[in-house]
Specification:
The complex is a heterotrimer. By secondary structure, chain A is mainly alpha-helical. Chain A has 15 helices and no strands. Chain A has one domain. Chain C is built from 3 helices and 8 strands, in the order βαββαββββαβ. The relative contact order of chain C is 0.16. At the B-C interface, helix 8, strand 7 and strand 8 of B face strand 4 and helix 3 of C.
């Protein structure tokens, strides 16, 4: 009786229909998925840390970790244990509350993003019908955490790193969101599950420019190379998390990789068809695609040098933003004017636009070396 | 072209940031007190001396031969060149003639050392640019081969103590020349690999072209030498202008840059590696047989006098000024420190650029603190 | 081949321009008085047929009765070089003019000589100790230090 009452409250408060065949009603569904998500994020982060270190090692013609466990598979476990056992040092001049809260504020939004990512048809914590908007809104809160870390450390290097981070994240929100809107136009819904269901062919073929813009903007949002100047090892020692050690550093380390997994998951959902695939179970397809996207991120990290802060910002505003607008306009025209066109026609048109636009824009209007920000 | 700061509506004030002795990118224990306005560098004040060991004073208490291991520790990245410069100075002072085979061996070793040094210089420059260790490790792969050859010859991997006054300490072992041949065959393809990956990389060009420009007049006035001077467009190489040892017998080009920015310094070093390979090829072909060290007493007593000998070390003009008073130890030994003098222009080069550029410009000059501080 | 100019020829040129500045000269070097150091250096740098624009090094040696400061210059255009010296007989407060205005490369080297030998360079914009810390007593490279 009490359980039925609770379930009623849950359904009414959240106005969310739990799938009818779900045993136990609303709160069991919530509990199950919360646990699954936390375990998923932690395990995936460990997995991607391993992929990154081993993959980067092989690309740099060295072995990468191979001692801890077979093929070095337990390396992330060793890292985690090491970091957790370190002494928690807080600088004497630090703003204690801000310093303590920063990792929490940075990490929570990342977990929140996974609430709307579908693992299977209908298998997600909350099938919000504004799914992707929620993702965009929540992911920006991490930046506040980073800035708190930079400020609360009372260290000039950290402050420099945090300022750079805020500038970069704010700049890259625009192309990111515009690329998402292109996909939303094609799918006709903001709900992540609906977007996956609408992908009879993956949207990467229909929105190649959007995919590229989202990938670049996503890498910049999460401070991955070639945009990792927020924690540029060779310049600012470690940027905003210089003064952190122990568990708090573990949180920042986790944030970096969890955000990478989150962006990879969003790319998979929006562009690669989410959990759709022929033979394997859907959640396995999802994980495989996330790993592939992450591997491409590792690849770019190993290959490319870093850009400077003013070049980073001019890349966002002068290159990605106009291209994203053009992409949006073209997609809107396609959706309105050619709704019944065959898909392969649209694919060809979009790829042609991509092939024409990028060289044209980079030769005529924008060269990376021209990025000079007049302060 | 430096970045100009306009009058801003917000009031800002410059702050002093210390790129301390312990820093991942300062190539050693070097400290810079930078005055920054936001990200823009207004001024720097270099602070030296963290690696000062008093080598010049120690020279007065060691014998002439016993000082050679100390010269290794000056520019510890390219020890063979330091040895060579010192031995040339003592030979000039004492009037010793070096046998032919030793001269050829010295040239081969010195050019191999130049390649090894430039590999590290370019690798760490790219590491500073942010290409997270990948080119650095690729170049270390090649440097490992060269260091293996040095180990064959002298038994050491970093501080060789190989050259002696009047020649070299040991002859080349039998397996040296075939291994060197293999390296010479492989090296051009590796250099080609670096060129393909890096020469036209858009991000590298954006970071390094036009950044930290050094004009010819400033470079010559500051006494800057080596790849830094050549990157400004001045074709000056001591191997060509004042040939020491047997460099006048070899045929090689001198690469120069165009405008003296970081990208030019990077390109000049890559080209110099190719030219060094040419010199080694020619030297191996003509390598004569014979003794490898002149008959010089271990406790050599040069006659009273003074001498200065300089070489084109990988970093620039490295010279030793020796004064002898007919005893077994030098009366005075002064090292012309290439890296210290190359740093004279750093202040002009970085004013107005950003923090990220400061690191790159500093890395592109390629210094070693052992030589700066002695 | 960089021609090392004969000290005697340069000495005669210097005696014409600045009588009394040359103390002695030999094949290898010219010895000039510290007081006329700046004008001699400016003459060597600015005269077109000499044009010594590249400053190799400056160093100092402690011969017990005097300090000898040695300069070597090279002309990149004509490819010739010259060594000239100055002697400073004062042991307590040795001082010579600084050539930083003419060749900026002398900046750190003169600071080094001040740091390790104690010779002051008049006119140097920033004559501070460079390798040893402020407050170090004594001048290590002098022969009577250790």
């Amino acid at each position: 009786m009490a359980l039925a009452a609770l379930n009623n409250i849950g359904t009414q408060v959240c106005r969310q229909a739990v799938p009818p065949d779900w045993p136990g009603g609303f709160w069991w569904h919530w509990l199950f998925f919360t646990v699954v998500l936390i375990i998923f994020v932690l395990v995936m982060v460990m997995g991607v840390i391993y992929i990154e270190r081993r993959g980067m090692g092989r690309m740099q013609s060295r072995l990468g970790p191979n001692r801890t466990g077979p093929f070095g598979l337990l390396q992330p476990v060793a890292d985690a244990v090491k970091v957790l056992l370190k002494e928690n040092i807080v600088p004497a001049n630090a703003d204690k509350l801000v310093h303590w809260l920063a990792p929490v504020v940075a990490f929570s939004p990342v977990l929140l993003i996974f609430a709307v990512v579908p693992f299977q048809n209908g298998a997600l914590l909350a099938d919000l019908n504004i799914g992707i908007l929620y993702v965009v809104a929540v992911s920006s809160i991490s930046t506040v955490g980073v800035f708190m870390a930079g400020w609360g450390s009372s260290n000039k290097y950290s402050l420099l790193g945090a300022m750079r981070n805020v500038a970069a994240v704010v700049s890259y929100e625009m192309p990111l969101v515009l690329a998402i809107v292109g996909v939303v136009l094609l799918a006709g819904s903001l709900s992540m599950n609906q977007i996956v269901l609408a992908q009879d062919i993956p949207f990467i073929l229909l929105q190649p420019l959007g995919f590229l813009i989202f990938f670049i903007a996503g890498c910049a949002e999460i401070n991955r190379s070639p945009f990792d100047l927020m924690e540029a090892d060779s310049e600012l020692t470690a940027g905003f998390h210089t003064e952190y050690s122990g568990m708090k550093f573990a949180m920042f380390y986790l944030v970096e990789y969890a955000e990478a997994v989150a962006i990879a998951a969003i790319i998979t959902t929006l562009f690669l068809g989410g959990w759709r695939g022929p033979v394997l179970p859907p959640w396995l397809w999802f994980i495989v695609k996330v790993i592939i996207v992450f591997f491409v991120m590792v690849w770019t990290r190993t290959t490319l040098p870093r850009v400077r802060i003013d070049q980073l910002m001019s890349l966002a505003w002068k290159f990605l933003f106009p291209l994203a607008l053009i992409n949006l306009v073209v997609t809107a025209i396609e959706v309105l004017a050619l709704p019944a066109a065959l898909l392969w026609v649209l694919i060809i048109i979009n790829f042609a636009i991509l092939a024409a636009l990028i060289p044209l824009w980079s030769k005529l209007f924008f060269k990376l070396g021209w990025g000079r920000l007049e302060v | 072209m430096a970045i100009e700061t306009r009058e801003m509506a917000l009031k800002t004030e410059p702050f002093v940031l210390n790129f301390g002795p312990v820093h991942p990118s300062t190539h050693g224990v070097y400290r810079m007190r930078t005055t920054l306005d936001g990200e823009v560098v207004l001024d720097i004040e270099p602070v030296f001396g963290y690696l000062h060991r008093g080598i010049e004073k120690l020279a007065e208490q060691r014998t002439f031969t016993g000082f050679i291991p100390l010269t290794d520790r000056l520019d510890y990245i390219s020890s063979m060149s330091n040895n060579l410069a010192y031995c040339l100075a003592v030979e000039k002072l004492a009037g010793i003639a070096v046998p032919e085979r030793a001269e050829y061996i010295r040239v081969i070793i010195a050019e191999m050392q130049r390649i090894a040094n430039h590999l590290i210089a370019v690798g760490s420059f790219l590491n500073d640019c942010g290409a997270y260790f990948t080119p650095f490790l690729y170049m270390f792969r090649e440097r490992e081969r060269i260091v293996d050859l040095f180990e064959m010859v002298s038994g050491q991997r970093l501080l060789y103590n190989y050259m002696r006054i009047g020649g070299v300490s040991q002859d080349l072992p039998d397996e040296f020349l075939p291994a060197l041949r293999k390296l010479l065959d492989l090296m051009p393809s590796y250099i080609g690999e670096y060129e393909r990956l890096l020469k036209d990389n858009e991000i590298l060009q954006a970071r390094a072209r036009g950044v930290g420009i050094l004009t010819q007049e400033t470079a010559v006035n500051c006494g800057i030498s080596g790849p830094v001077l050549r990157s400004t467009g001045y074709r000056w190489d001591w191997r060509r202008a004042d040939p020491y040892s047997i460099y006048d017998r070899f045929d090689f080009d001198i690469p120069v840059g165009v405008q003296g920015d970081c990208y030019d310094r990077f390109r000049v070093r890559i080209e110099e590696m190719t030219q060094s390979l040419r010199i080694i090829e020619q030297a191996i072909k003509d390598l004569p047989s014979g003794p490898v060290q002149a008959d010089v007493p271990h406790l050599i007593r040069p006659p009273v006098g003074e001498a200065y000998a300089h070489i084109e070390a990988p970093k620039g003009e490295l010279g030793f000024y020796l004064v002898s008073d007919d005893s077994v130890a030098p009366y005075r030994c002064h090292v012309r420190p290439t890296s210290l003098i190359n740093l004279t222009a750093l202040r002009e080069m970085v004013r107005g650029w950003k923090v990220a550029d400061l690191i790159i410009i500093f890395g592109s000059i390629d210094i070693t603190l052992g030589e700066v501080d002695r | 081949m960089t021609v090392a100019l004969s000290g005697k020829d340069i000495a005669s040129k210097l005696e014409e321009r600045f009588p009394g500045s040359v103390v002695e000269s030999s094949q290898a070097c010219v010895l000039i008085k510290p007081d006329s150091l700046l004008e001699v250096a400016a003459f060597l740098k600015d005269t077109p047929e000499l044009n010594f624009d590249y400053f190799n090094y400056v160093t100092a040696v402690d011969y017990f009765q005097y300090f000898e400061i040695i300069y070597q210059l090279t002309s990149l255009e004509h490819n010739h070089s010259l060594v000239f010296k100055a002697r400073c007989y004062d042991r307590e407060n040795p001082a010579v003019p600084s050539v930083v205005e003419l060749w900026q490369g002398a900046d750190f080297q003169e600071r080094e000589i001040y740091d390790l030998m104690g010779i002051r360079f008049e006119g140097h914009p920033n004559l501070k100790r460079i390798f040893l810390w402020e407050g170090f007593q004594g001048y290590p490279l002098r022969k009577d230090f250790l």
